[in-house]
Specification:
This protein is of the alpha/beta class. It has two domains: 129 residues, Response regulator (Rossmann fold); 179 residues, Orthogonal Bundle (Hypothetical protein af1432), CATH 1.10.3210. 58% of the residues lie in helices and 7% in strands. The protein is built from 16 helices and five strands. It binds fe (ii) ion (FE2) (2 copies). The site of one fe (ii) ion (FE2) has 5 residues, from loops.
Length: 353
């Protein structure tokens, strides 16, 4: 019975690979005999430099390391290894107490355990066994983590794809708005970059631009494509699109950050916009950026009821609406881009014709 149990244990041990480094060949040999008997895969090395190379090129789970060695000590070996491998479980074999490294060094180098060298390996074996248990747990956690992030990425990708399809459906309904969301996304990022926003904010601006009008899917085609003046009732239906958009996107955690853009891209700086009549700095900052990009694109694109406007008219409109429709700081910055970096704007226009 006991023998059977031992077999199970040693066949499990067989999956773990141990490397021992000691400049005394006698110690390496005894460890080799002892650990192979216990079932572990074992590699013994007497040269510290060779040990570092081996760890670089092969996978090991655990290292048993002598402290006093030539040409350099065990702590230096660990220092080298930790530069490229944080996972290796390291046990340090120390000489007599007065030759052991200070506890501070052991903690600093992320050494998991140490024991005094002796002819009997009982204490070392206990340390190895508990080390292997920790490694096993660490591996399990790693596996679960990897599986979770794989699943999350797949879900996120699938969701993005299905929403992307929705987005194209919106733009396919109306040839005049084709490319609109792509351009709004890129103009917004251009403004965000000039404002020195973080990578995360730029990502939100991009995604927000792509999906800001997604709610138009819920507005009848007959209204969206109408070339004559809209009735009050029709206009109030169009004004529903920010709320419909939020409704569509709000269930997915990946879209949480863009909801303020989707909801508030039609607010006006003086508080006369929709849906919430927010005023000034109460309008989310990224939504104020998207609003400038959105209006600029609306004016520079052809619509069912008019041709695109000449650039001078667009510029004077942007100036006229500074402080009423638009945040003056953002619109000033955008006017500055139009004046001094027009090629960036043109590039976006040409890319998404
Ligand atoms: Fe909109
Ligand atoms: Fe829009």
């Amino acid at each position: 019975m006991r023998k059977g149990l031992q077999n199970v244990e040693s066949s499990e041990n067989n999956t773990y690979k141990i490397i021992a480094v000691d400049d005394e060949i006698g110690i390496v040999d005894s460890l080799s005999i002892f650990l192979k008997r216990t079932g572990y895969q074992f590699v013994g090395v007497t040269d510290p430099i060779e040990a570092i190379e081996k760890v670089k090129n092969e996978h090991f789970d655990l290292m048993i390391l002598d402290f006093i060695m030539t040409p350099f000590h065990g702590d230096q070996v660990v220092e080298e290894i930790r530069k490229f491998n944080k996972d290796l479980y390291i046990l340090l074999l120390t000489g007599h107490k007065d030759l052991a490294p200070p506890l501070e060094t052991i903690k600093k180098l992320d050494i998991q355990g140490y024991c005094e060298k002796s002819d009997k390996f009982d204490q070392l074996l206990l340390l190895i066994e508990s080390g292997i248990k920790s490694i096993k747990q660490m591996n399990e956690i790693k596996n679960i983590n990897n599986q979770l992030s794989d699943t999350y990425e797949k879900l996120e990708q699938a969701y993005l794809e299905s929403i992307e399809t929705l987005r194209y459906t919106v733009e396919a309904k109306d040839i005049y708005t084709r490319g609109h969301s792509d351009r709004v996304a890129e103009y917004s990022v251009l403004i965000g970059k000039k404002l020195g926003l973080s990578e995360e904010d730029l990502k939100t601006l991009h995604l927000g631009g792509l999906f800001h009008d997604i709610g138009k899917i819920g507005v009848p085609d007959s209204i969206l494509q109408k070339s004559s003046t809209l009735t009050d009732d029709e206009y109030s239906q169009i004004k529903q699109h920010p709320n419909i958009g939020v409704h569509i996107l709000s269930n997915a955690s990946i879209f949480q950050d863009i909801l303020p853009i989707v909801e508030h891209h039609h607010e006006k700086f003086d508080g006369s916009g929709y849906p919430s009549r927010l005023k000034g700095n109460d309008i989310p900052y990224l939504a104020r950026i998207t609003s400038v990009a959105d209006s600029f694109d609306a004016m520079t694109s052809r619509r069912s009821y008019r041709d695109s406007l000449p650039m001078e008219t667009v510029i004077s409109e942007l100036k006229r609406c500074s402080g009423t429709q638009f945040d003056p700081n953002i619109v000033n910055l955008f006017l500055d881009i139009l004046e001094n970096d027009f090629s960036s704007i043109q590039e976006i226009m040409n890319k998404h014709k």
